[in-house]
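Duplicate of earlier report; MARVEL domain-containing protein input re-posted below.
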Amino acid sequence: MGLGDFFLGRVPRWLLFFSNFMVFVSSTILVGIISYYVRHDYRGTIWIYPLVIAVITLFIYLIAMFLPILKGYRGYMLPLNFIMTYLWVTALIFAAQRFAGGRCRAFPIPGRGSRCSLTHAILAFWIIGFVFLLFNTIMEALMWAHHWRDSRRTLHDEKHQQLAPGTGPSTAPAGVTPAAAV
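Output:
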């Protein structure tokens, strides 16, 4: 059993389920925290992109987290994971530019003071979600590559398979069985 056969088993599919679940949880928490900021009169454009990405991720991974459990799953979510990984890294970069290095004090909530813990939580959950999305992309690429390589090998083997004697195409006249023609 080689490393390529590993991707046919249950372990990578359950790892993808767990990873998709963690992305779902991260996006749920991010939607909650960012919505808290939007509710308290922070409706600037700096919150639009992260909120939209978190909401889209929430709905996509609500369904996608159960797909790897299916036995016939072979990494079909690779393009979506690839796109979502880059959207999340962009949101992570934007969040780091806004909140890292003590800049969290620039976003105080009226009557509640600065909420640096919330901005640090935003950064932490963007990082957690990005790491799991990157893991998803790598695992799905390996699963898809193994599936593609295995299907090509099967097609190649069927095409060049040697026929056993007596099993070749019949050259007997119509209406005569091949055994009677011999």
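The chain has six helices and no strands.

Merging into the original ticket.
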